[in-house]
Amino acid sequence: MADVEAKNPVLAQQAEILARPHTEAWDMANAIRALAIDAVEQAKSGHPGMPMGMADVATALWSRFHKFDAADPHWPDRDRFVLSAGHGSMLLYALLYLTGHDGMGVEEIKRFRQLHSPAAGHPERGEHPAIETTTGPLGQGIATAVGMAVAERMLAARFGRSLVDHRTWVIASDGDMMEGISHEAAALAGHLCLSKLTVMYDNNHISIDGDTALSYSDDVVKRFTAYGWAAKAIDGHDPQQINAALSFAVRSKKPTLIACRTIIGLGAPTKAGTAATHGSPLGGEEAAAAKLALGWREPPFTVPDALLERWRTVGSRGAGARRAWLKRLAHNSMRAEFERVMAGKLPDTWHEAVAALKQEIADTRPKIATRQASQKCLDALVPATPELVGGSADLTPSNLTFVKTMGTVNTGNFSGRYMHFGVREHGMGAAANGIAVHGGLIPYDATFFVFTDYMRPAIRIAAIMRAHVIHVLTHDSIGLGEDGPTHQPIEHLASLRAMPHLHVFRPADALETAECWELAIRRSDGPSLIVLSRQALPALRSDIGENRCARGGYVVREADGRRQATLIATGSEVSIADEARTALEADGIQVAVVSLPCWELFAQQDEAYRMQVLGSAPRIGVEAASGFGWERWLGTDGVFIGMTGFGASAPYQDLYKAFGITPDSIAAAVRKRLG
Ligand SMILES: Cc1ncc(C[n+]2csc(CCOP(=O)(O)OP(=O)(O)O)c2C)c(N)n1
Ligand SMILES: [Mg+2]
Prior knowledge:
The chain is built from 28 helices and 20 strands. By secondary structure, it is of the alpha/beta class. Strand 17 (565-569), helix 23 and strand 18 (591-595) form a beta-alpha-beta unit.
């Protein structure tokens, strides 16, 4: 043993920890460790090290502090628990099983990482009601939790503490801390003084490549202190220190970070404290020896009755608090409204505001930028939809996303509905996810379309989770003009259209903008992007009977006679195509103009409708963006007019000319195509 310890000095520390006098909490934590070991062995894949290292912290947190009732994982005033280090998923599944959650029995644990098991490789929201958010991409969880903590404060400001008074707990790892998004999220949380947010940081000094010293020498406690958090370091295997730190967190007037020094894979006789326990099964021999060292003598997947009973009492610890809360809810004058927003049901009258706006647009036919039209939509929707909350990553005057009556959120004041996220697109996207999955609010956020690159991982998680998040993305093409190629999106439409579950809307005028907003508000099974122009666009339509964007694409202007060509465009290019149509019709060439504001919805229509819209005449696609993906609508003999490289800095009218996206060039392309 001395030899092994010389090679791996952590083993001496491990020996000291194993030799400590142990209490009941140790046995409870060992149940987590044993289940993690067994599930990973059985699956022949997974991450045993983190659950083994953080079992003591998780046991203290769940058995004394985390407010939940396993009988009702939907209880709105439960604390939220986020396993940011999602690779340690067995930690969460073990906790859910041990505390008696329906749908996470030992059979599910035995099917860890198998098809249709709720115990998936990484925690996935929707697989089990007690999985609050999907994690795995490091850093997302901690930033999502910031959104959850914001949602809690906003709802508490609206409904009062008797209905909304819960905490957000996060377990995060070295990788979470290294990721840039954790910096954005932690800075925002510190600024907003989210005192009910606590991060238990698994400070195990190990990541995949080995010792974190290879790449990481942050003083995390100092870092978080500088962000305005209360932070301290503890021994993550000492229940007394853990409990004291958790009590400290509950008392703190600031968000808290507890850096828990742990040993990854605690118990493994040779591999503990090394990256070898991070993401592979321990192996039969090491696994057996680990259990022996921990004092665990049960067969695989077996927790002794008395210990399971002890854990089950933890699972019902919150039952009394939940019953008391239900009584308070029953007598609360805002009960109906609270239940409505938590159920994600829109107010009965929300639609009237949209209808009135559409009528006004139809009557006045404004020539405005679609970002301005979006502002009008928000002016109508915000008063009509109290659960709608918004924000921008420091581009409010450009995104046009603020409505005066909203009031702004700031330190100590969460009665407002608008957040200044600062220049933190990635953190903003994840926070919006957290607000959405918390329940009770519908978040929209905003930035320039080009900076979706900075928030794409959060958009992707929302898409996987089917979270109801709306992204308002202005300055959508070379049409933004002088700011030049760094700010002009080219490949963004194509790349985001490639993402499953996402609805990418690019409205062509004010009326389409209202229709797209309507669809985004109504859509509760996934995120929507509303992609908007900086430049003014003429009104194309006045018909408001039917939401024509709902089918994703439609004929804006039919050909005067038999169609000889179909011009298919989106957003700002629809009116350019429409001008080309006028010129062509004057020449006796009969063309239709199709607007395709949402490809995903159009793709869902039946073949007959799509054929009727796209027609059998030659198709010409027009979009001031990359043509990647347009073959889908144009077929192999279609023509695409758009961008083939990056943009340039100039007034936008000059850019459209320089890149050949004009009525003339479209008309010329049609003539050429028709030979
Ligand atoms: C954004 C992102 N990059 C990379 C990975 C792959 N990955 C999974 S865990 C991990 C790091 C492991 O170190 P740590 O976070 O300290 O976890 P521990 O090994 O201590 O459990 C990496 C790079 C990931 N999940 N997410
Ligand atoms: Mg680590």
